[in-house]
Specification:
Number of helices: 11
Number of domains: 1
Shape: globular
CATH architecture: Alpha-Beta Barrel
Mean pLDDT: 93
CATH class: Alpha Beta
CATH topology: TIM Barrel
Largest sheet: 8 strands, parallel, barrel
Number of strands: 10
């Protein structure tokens, strides 16, 4: 994703945020959240396990629309059958063609946690995520300074949301840890060049303390890929495109799990 694309995405997000706040002001959102937030589902990712976060993804800036091999209900059912521990739902509207309706529909179909993946940079979006049923949210260090990240982590914790904090270089991992992140995503995709390198996970995972959960994101398309990153010590992979394209998503996920668990390395405490 080039810097220009990232800037365009954020410009659109700011427009849509303004529209959302005009429809439902912040104080009204707080009131609705207090009266009607759905019950939270516990986040069960753990440092000594290996799990799959399977993603509902309709498009991307680089690929355009991604053809699905099945319907949304069928996809979600397959994710559950395959053993996914969390379902990630991409809700960005303009470049990834997601919606909050997708989040609600997925939430209503399964009994395990749902992660909202979007370009979240305000307290309003954190509260909005919880109102629509998210159990966890993605926060991207590249969009936030340490102070802003720490503030959003605090808001999320106060309303019972887990957080996956995404990084793609050593400086960003340092910022995430300083802000208090406990579940850290290593994005193998460079947000400026769009290049994908699984080696990014191997290069950064040693920075993450053993008590934290490390997640490898982007570029995991096969059991071999899952095994490679599991051997570095990560506790989960976030997989989108290869899942939605698969003719048998359940088998695809179970294959990733089997390969990852067979090669999972537990990071030692001296890495902290």
């Amino acid at each position: 994703m080039s810097a220009d694309i990232l800037q365009k995405i954020m410009a659109k997000k700011e427009q849509r945020l303004t529209q959302a706040q005009s429809r439902v002001p912040f104080t009204e959102l707080v009131r609705r959240l207090e009266q009607g937030a759905p019950p939270r589902r516990p986040w069960e990712l753990a440092a000594d396990r290996f799990d799959v976060i399977a993603e509902v993804k309709r498009a991307s800036p680089s690929l355009g629309s991604i053809p699905w091999a099945c319907t949304l209900p069928q996809l979600v059912q397959a994710y559950e059958q395959g053993g996914a521990k969390v379902i990630s739902v991409l809700t960005e509207e303009d470049y990834f063609r997601g919606t909050l309706e997708d989040l609600v529909n997925v939430r209503n179909q399964i009994a395990f946690p749902v992660l909202r993946k979007d370009f979240i940079f305000t307290e309003y979006q954190v509260l909005e995520s919880r109102f629509y049923g998210a159990d966890a949210i993605l926060l991207i260090v590249a969009l936030l300074g340490e102070k802003e990240l720490a503030a959003l982590l605090k808001v999320a914790a106060e309303i019972g949301l887990e957080t996956l904090v995404e990084c793609h270089d050593r400086e960003e991992v340092s910022i995430a840890l300083a802000a208090g992140a406990r579940t850290i995503g290593i994005n193998n995709r460079n947000l400026r060049t769009f290049e994908v390198r699984l080696e990014t996970t191997a290069e950064l995972v040693d920075m993450i303390p053993a008590g934290c959960v490390a997640v490898s994101e982007s570029g995991i398309h096969s059991p071999e890929h899952a095994g490679y990153v599991a051997a570095t010590g990560v506790s989960a992979v976030l997989v989108g495109e290869s899942c939605v394209r698969s003719g048998n998503p359940a088998a695809h996920i179970s294959g990733l799990l089997a390969a990852g668990r067979s090669r999972k390395t537990v990071r030692q405490s001296n890495n902290s």
